[in-house]
Design a protein that fits this description.
This protein has helices at residues 9-26, 29-37, 44-68, 71-88, 93-105. By secondary structure, the protein is an all-alpha fold.
Length: 108
């Protein structure tokens, strides 16, 4: 029997991994970099679509947090796993930091 905060590690990791994969399938690393630097995205429709995707991720994380009562350790694990997976998928470190700040810290 593990400590109480270890009970959901696999669930948290799987959720964070799936969120990062979903984001990657919809917003490629170069597009995310352009979005946060403000260069190369002149199309307002595309900008809006990216913002909607980020809002959807925030909603999914909020729902997961409420459903699973993550607590501080669970939130930190979710953020770390999500961030690590984004880096593995090819997102720039600065972009990953900004994504995590935008999606996770405002949300949870």
């Amino acid at each position: 029997m593990g400590l109480f905060f270890w009970k959901d590690n696999k669930k948290i990791d799987a959720f964070a991994f799936a969120l990062a994969e979903d984001l990657f399938s919809q917003v490629q690393p170069d597009v995310a970099a352009q979005h946060f630097t403000g260069s190369g995205l002149d199309n307002k429709k595309k900008k809006r679509k990216i913002e909607e995707r980020f809002q959807a991720l925030m909603g999914q994380m909020r729902e997961f947090n409420l459903t699973n009562s993550l607590g501080i350790y669970g939130k930190a694990r979710l953020q770390k796993t999500f961030s690590d997976r984004l880096l593995e998928l090819g997102y720039d470190d600065a972009v990953t930091h900004k994504l995590v700040e935008t999606i996770v810290f405002r949300n949870i």
